[in-house]
Predict the 3D structure of the following.
Amino acid sequence: MERAEIINRLPYGEPFNFVEGLDKVDADGAEGFYTFKPGSEVFRGHFKDRAVIPGVLLTECCAQIGLVCLGIFLSGESGERKIAFALSSSEMEFLLPVFPGERVRVRSEKEYFRFGKLKCKVRMWNEKDQLVCRGILAGMQVKNNNG
Amino acid sequence: MTESQYYQKLKSIVSPYLPEDVSVDQIQADSHFIRELNINSANLVDIVLDVEDEFDIVLENEDMEAMQTVRDAMAIIERKRSV
């Protein structure tokens, strides 16, 4: 499946789309990037005096690029359409803060995709190529009747 | 391997995935993984993968679907191992 087609099939809309582009997707993993837009409403309260991207959004970005884009690709390989993924577990470590305006790169490595469950290792780097977070995410394929 | 050995092995595979409010003693042959042991579908996949490793078998989608109770799982494992 083409990378543009994968992005096209993502179920997210603004302000909750955290995939800007994909550089690579194959059977073993996905790699893509996202720029956290300055001025987003969310950052006004996190924190009141200094904006830092919340860890949950870093996790979400890792999940959308690393897990969901890969899941859509893998589902497409087996001829399935109208597929969505629900996050089933996340175990993340956060190493460095990410600030509004920063562009991050996410890479995932598939551990397994069996019986509708996709589990992968994910890592995120900032523009200086420093690792900002890493972890293990898993999601379950769900039949999407609205798609 | 005897039936009780299968059962004991399966019990030890399942127990780490039990939610906090379900005790190991509640795992009975007739226990339904999802309805009675409160195991969610994501953890059930991990149980199935651990079963594959432990018993050195490969399970298919239809085996996963048929594996509703502990007894179902034992029957599938036994059938796969005898092939």
Summary: Chain A is about 20% helix and 40% strand. Residues 4 and 22 of chain A are 8 Å apart (CA to CA). Strands of chain A lie at 21-26, 29-35, 83-94, 103-114, 117-125, 131-143. The radius of gyration of chain A is 15 Å.
